[in-house]
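Bumping with the actual sequence this time:
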Amino acid sequence: MPQVLDRRRGLAGNRDQKSVSPPGKGNNGNGNRAFVPRKPVNPPARNAKLQKPEPEILFQKYFKSVGPRTYAAQLKRAGNGNHFLVLTEGKRDEKTAEVRKTKVFVFSEDFVAFFRMLHETAQFIRANPVPDEVRGKRERFWAKHQSEDKPESPRPARPALKR
């Protein structure tokens, strides 16, 4: 009979043999081993030596939108030397004053395709700008919204996109 590897008992002689534990060693009386739960494994304590260092910021740029959003772009260096781009949108919740962030990570192997996509998108936007009617509505909306929130410091109008 061929030998069989049993995950619970190790290498067993053949399928016909029963593994019997000596009394008091997990034997439940019927010749089978009883289930003995293991002690839970605690994760290693968090300390500075075990945590990865924060990636180095090589470049960053951000701007505050007319509305409640802030956009940021950071170019960082990973621990292995690879560069990656982090695009972040932060929006403050008016009820809780908590900033909710949404991040997109673009890694160096995708830079060419990603920036080609952005360039083509920018070309389309320049060729097909927002109609003046819609732009006027948005400008009036934000002007009204800002005058309600902060009457003492009105924000200057956003510059139009260059064509």
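The tokens above came from a reply further down the thread. The chain has two helices and six strands.
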